């Protein structure tokens, strides 16, 4: 974005924010009032310390009907475990995962040494989420998160995600034009913005966190699991110590079980 255009957007934003009502931004189940909601939310965000760069990015978002449609249509999590694993291509994930474990042995050894997490569950998550980085999504990230923060279904949860996304834009970790999955997840293992802030790490040593980097994404995923109670050397099947960390990754029971099963098959344990 050219500097002059950016400054013009900031000036226009200041006028809108300054004139916005003091009342809290209100959710809605349709996109009719999204533009009004953005102005109200921007006023709140400015009071909470969000800087002009991120506020301008917020005002550039659009209501995403595709995100709402995806949010309402997550039917695969209601399948049986066997049907879910078949639908997600578990045998192919395990086969490719074993190959990638061997070809990236040094990376996985480094991650396990640092975080205590073996390759299996990381590869299972990587394969399940994006087909090992092949399909990371093309939805405008800020628009997806803003849409879900505006929507009444999970307003509080995605309001936190939106504030996290704006903070990432402020510090340059997330581009205002970033694209990812339908709910605002980004990178090889599909981190929501709040988790990027909490668990994102530099896995390739280039001095920045970029979840579109394989090494950063896998190290960050291991850091997430460690942050959710992963204990080095303990098992991760249902009923074992580290299964709780996998449960922290995704709330769906079939997803949790699938990761544990595929991880074990990849690890050969």
From TrEMBL:
The organism's lineage is: Bacteria, Pseudomonadati, Pseudomonadota, Alphaproteobacteria, Hyphomicrobiales
- What this protein is called in its record is Lytic transglycosylase family protein
Per the record, the domain of life is Bacteria
């Amino acid at each position: 974005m050219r500097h002059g255009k950016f400054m013009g957007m900031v000036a226009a934003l200041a006028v809108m924010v300054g004139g916005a009502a003091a009342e809290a931004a209100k959710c809605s189940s349709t996109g009719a009032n999204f533009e009004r909601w953005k102005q109200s939310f921007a006023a709140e965000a400015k009071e909470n310390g969000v800087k002009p760069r991120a506020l301008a990015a917020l005002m550039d978002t659009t209501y995403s009907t595709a995100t709402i449609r995806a949010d309402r249509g997550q039917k695969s999590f209601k399948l049986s475990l066997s049907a879910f694993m078949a639908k997600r291509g578990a045998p192919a994930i395990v086969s490719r995962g074993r190959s990638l474990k061997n070809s990236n042995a040094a990376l996985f050894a480094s991650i396990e040494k640092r975080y205590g997490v073996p390759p299996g569950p990381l590869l299972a998550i990587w394969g399940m989420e994006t087909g090992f980085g092949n399909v990371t999504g093309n939805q405008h990230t800020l628009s997806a998160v803003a849409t879900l923060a505006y929507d009444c279904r999970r307003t509080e949860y995605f309001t936190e995600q939106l504030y996290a996304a704006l903070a990432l834009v402020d510090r340059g970790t997330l581009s205002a034009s970033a694209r990812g999955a339908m709910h605002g997840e980004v990178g090889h293992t599909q981190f929501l913005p709040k988790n990027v802030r909490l668990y994102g790490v530099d896995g390739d040593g280039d001095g920045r966190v970029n979840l579109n980097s394989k090494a950063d994404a896998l190290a960050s995923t291991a850091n997430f699991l460690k942050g959710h109670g992963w204990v080095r050397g303990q098992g991760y099947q249902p009923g074992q110590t580290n299964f709780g960390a996998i449960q922290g990754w995704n709330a769906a029971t079939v997803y949790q079980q699938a990761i544990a099963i595929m991880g074990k098959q990849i690890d050969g344990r």
